[in-house]
Predict the structure.
Amino acid sequence: MKHKNIEVKEVKNDNFKVLHSKLIEYVEQKELPCTIVLVYQNDEVIYCEKQGMADIENNVPIEFDSIFRIASMTKPITAVAALMLYEEGKFSLDDPLSKFIPKAKNLRVFSKEEGDQLITEVPNRELTILDLFTHTGGISYLASLTHPVDKKFTGLFQDKKWKSLAEAVNALLDVPLLCQPGTKWNYSLSIDVLGYLIEILSGMPFDIFLQERIFNKLDMKDTGFFVPMKKMNRITRLYMKDNNGRLMPAPEKQQSFGTEKPKILSGGGGLVSTLSDYLKFAVMLLNNGRFGETRLLKEETIRLMTQDYVVSRGITFINEDTFGPIPKPLIKLRLESAKGSGFGLGVRTQVEPGLTPIGSHGWGGAFTTDYIIDPKNNMLSIFLSQIFPGFNTTEFYSMTVRNSIYKGLKS
């Protein structure tokens, strides 16, 4: 990395004509309200284009400094924050969670449902910090409804009676685990628990820790848990699709996400950011923990973060049952996207040949955002749009964007 500041501006590149035409098509056909795609290789931006509108109704175009709700692209940032404390010797990956949150000692595991009662059993072992990083602890997520335990988690972090992350996590620990720790990969609220662990180990509020230890160090000026009033004109409007597949503004409840400071600081999906800010974070990952003269993590810690801890333990990363009852074409898409993948400390990582080279890693967000780090090609890419709910759109559009990027790299 030659320079600390990377200027984000339009960079056209004929090698990415297929990608460029795809992005124009998505916006013109009103499949997506906007797109920004950036490709960075060998210490420079080699492609950067924006299309569409930040606010269709008010005719506001998308800009490179537009602020996006990045949803689960928050998770790798939380993982890096936790690993900074790991380097300080605050915990080991094999530590039981109960070492720091005593209530975790009393966790139970779902066995069966009898009427309205959940029958539970004792865990075979305690939930560990590694389980939190890798979604293998049996914790569920807030948006699933396919299992009796899932229903207990639904809306848990949206409950207005919780006044802090600590209160929400302690409520979460009252819910049984879906399965025995270390037996299944189940996308979950575990990274939110990791955010609370950061508060405990650092003695600082989670948002202050991120601000002082990551955002200030990387000059990420527009990243946080809400958008200040003076920057509100830059936030991208959130969209969804109606029953006919037409774009429409998301309901006000979702629209307000990121516009005011939340009581519960979600390390799993609560941040807003910009292309420029997330690029700095991604470059730090690509450069093995270093951005310019600033080092956040040691090189060996980045290797620790990006190696696989799931398939190497005999746990299936993603299969047909991972996401519950969803359409078969989407299941096929997700299995194709996950081919050859494992999971590291807060990030998907490629362990066998697949859509990206072995060693690449990254993650996406439910509002249709995605990034990939590719050490083999000394490359990273970032894709930003803003549709809710975007679990299926993220998968489809991210795969298309990635495939087009790699075609461009080969041309």
User: Anything to note?
Assistant: The radius of gyration is 20 Å. The chain has a mean pLDDT of 91. The chain is about 30% helix and 15% strand. Residues 391-410 form the longest helix (20 residues).
